[in-house]
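REVIEWER CHECKLIST
Item 1: Sequence provided? yes
Item 2: Single chain? yes
Item 3: Sequence as submitted:
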Amino acid sequence: MGKTALIVIDMINTYTHEDAHLLLPSVEKTLPCVVELIDRARGHEIPVIYANDNFGEWRSHHGEILQTALEGPHASLVRPLAPDKSSLFVVKARHSIFYETPLGYLLSQQGIDHVVLCGQVTEQCVLYSALDAHIRHLRVTVPRDAVAHIHEDLADAALRMMERNMGAGVVASAEIDFGDS
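Item 4: Structure as written out by the authors:
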């Protein structure tokens, strides 16, 4: 049996993009669950991996992405879940956390065969990342209360697709037991 990793998708964010006003209420609602998952994972020494968009800033790195978000108008949504020194960070440029990133290699080097995906956006980056994890034969869990959406109806459909078509475990975040990993 392999190991589990918690992957935090696109939560290091300035929320200055076009759909941010639609996304922010969901982020505010899910933030406590994301923070709680990160804290529990760290407490059980489960790798916490941040997979974050570079927002088209091709000279940026993870420290700069974090600093920009912490200086932005919604720093209060970033500060509670900021990476610590043990966190791993993968910069991505497209929707999937796997597309043109070293994440697959990182997971294999760490012996990880189960990913817990939290973050945003359920009907976009989380969905595409779950599909890419599934086709890589990784077990996938998505805590429904720790993923934020732009459109609730599309998010509900995306969660059903992840569960039905990809065999993902779609559960409440409180049901995730990092102690078994």
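Item 5: Key structural point noted by reviewer: The longest strand covers residues 112-120.
Item 6: Recommendation: ____
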